[in-house]
Amino acid sequence: MILIGQYDSPFVRRVAIAMRRYGIAYEHRPWSVFADAEKIARYNPLRRVPTLVFDDGAVLVESSVILDTLDEMVGPERALIARSGPERREALRLMALATGFADKAVSLYLEPLLRKEPSERWVARCREQIGDTLDLLEADRARRSSGWWLGESLGHVDVAAACALGYLREAHPDFFSAKRWPSLAAHAERANALEDFQAIYQPFVVRLGG
Ligand SMILES: N[C@@H](CCC(=O)N[C@@H](CS)C(=O)NCC(=O)O)C(=O)O
């Protein structure tokens, strides 16, 4: 398998961390979505990452779709998400909120890079969307006493949230406040201490890449 995309993308990183935990081997192509767009286009016309190329030539895009397929490959006992029922729905809900604020953080980052005059309205909207979503996630995490978000073992929600927070804090250093979002800060700290998170990491640098 070939995983295309750089680990400074929260979406690529969450897939790579899951693959590492599942013990699924892959070749890594750390291609930039801007500088290497035409290389990515050979596999994915959207020119987005993560893009996962299977040995039979099949190509999957969208981190959640990729993870769903990997979960099926390793089976429900090892999957980092509940098989069904309210627990699964809860995981999907939280994952979508985490990847959703990461999406907005990417938009917020690109706005001043791609436009001569960034839209103030768009910037304010992104900031509000991210802040309100962090508030919701903070309240959700704070009301749970479990070691990880949905229990005592690490799941896709934990990975998605930690990767999204990592990206937000590096791409927008002024945004995150551990005082306003203490449970999220603690969550990130715990995840970042894990070997998998340290191995699958690329510092974010300002450029038209990612
Ligand atoms: N919803 C997608 C988001 C992927 C995404 O936004 N990736 C960024 C890199 S962080 C990208 O490919 N950007 C280039 C583009 O959208 O044109 C997923 O979960 O995989």
Question: What descriptive keywords fit this protein?
Answer:
mainly alpha; single chain; globular; 8 helices; 210 residues; binds glutathione
Word description of this protein:
The structure is a single chain. This protein has a four-stranded mixed β-sheet with strand order 2-1-3-4, covered by helices on one side. It is 55% helix and 6% strand. The protein has helices at 10-22, 37-41, 63-74, 85-114, 120-142, 156-171, 182-192, 195-199, and strands at 2-4, 27-29, 51-53, 59-61. The protein is mostly helical and 210 residues long. The model has no long low-confidence stretch (mean pLDDT 97). Bound molecules: glutathione. Residues 9, 11, 33, 47-50, 62-64, 99, 106, 210 line the site of glutathione. The site of glutathione has 13 residues, from helix 3 and helix 4.
Helix proportion range: 40-55%
Radius of gyration: 17 Å
Provide the β-strand percentage band.
Answer: 5-15%
Which small compounds were modeled alongside the protein? glutathione
| Number of separate strands | 4
- Termini separation comes to 21 Å
